[in-house]
Design a protein that fits this description.
Layout: H1 2-11, H2 16-43, H3 63-87, H4 96-106, H5 112-121, H6 123-135
Helix pairs in contact: 3-4, 4-5
Amino acid sequence: MIDWLTQKIHGWGLEWWQVFLGLGLSVLMFLVSSAIVSLVLVKLPANYFHSSHGREFLVDRHPVLRAIGIFLKNLLGLLLVIGGVIMAVPGVPGPGVLSILLGIMLLDFPGKRKLETRIVGRPRVNQAVNALRARFGKPPLMLD
C-alpha cells in the first residue's frame, strides 16, 4: 500500500514533504476559517435575520468613506462566497455552507434577506448555528 502511494505521489511530481505541507495547510485553513465563521455567527445579534433588524452600513460616515467601505465589504463577501463554494465540495476541508452564508451577509443585492433566511432556515444549518451560539451562552437566532 505504501509503495503504491509513494509511486502515485512521485508520479505526480511530488515529494512527501510537499504532501505533508499541503495537508498541514489544509488543516490550518480549516481551523482558521472555522474559527472566523464561528466568531461572526456567535457575535451576531439574535434578531439579525428578522425583518425588524436594520441593515444600514456606515450611514453616519462621509459618502466617499462609506462608498469605499461598501466596496470592500462586498469584495470580502464575494471572496467568502467563492471560498465557501470551494469548501462545500466533498474532500475540501472547511465550513462551506456557513462561509457562503457569511459571504452573502456581507454582499448587497436585491433579495438578500430572503436568501439569507432560506439558508439559515434550513434545519441542519439552523441547528448548527444555534448549537454553536448556545455553547457560548448566546440566544438562538430569530427568523421571520
